[in-house]
Amino acid sequence: MESKLQGKCVKxxxxxxxxxxxxxxxxxxxxxxxxxxxxxxxxxxxxxMKHPNGKGTLAKLQERExxxxxxxxxxxxxxDSYDKFAEIIKTxxxxxxxxx
Length: 100
What we know:
44% of the residues lie in helices and 19% in strands. It is α+β, with helices and mostly antiparallel strands and 100 residues long. It has a four-stranded mixed sheet with strand order 1-2-3-4, with helices on both faces.
């Protein structure tokens, strides 16, 4: 189910011209699943995908990694639904378009 959700989210990002990549970090357990790079500003957003319907929870290692990313002033999210992913995109596209 998580992979189906991730597939839908990837399509949504691509439809909004956002470069999106599935990340496999060598020697870095807990690193977020997805990296989004927004058009125009190049803003990066990290997303840890979780099983929908509350069945997936963040492991301590994943929580720590998201916190490390946020401490670098980057955006990092946990996401368990298409609507939440869409809201992440809308939030960052709005901010991006204000900068132009």
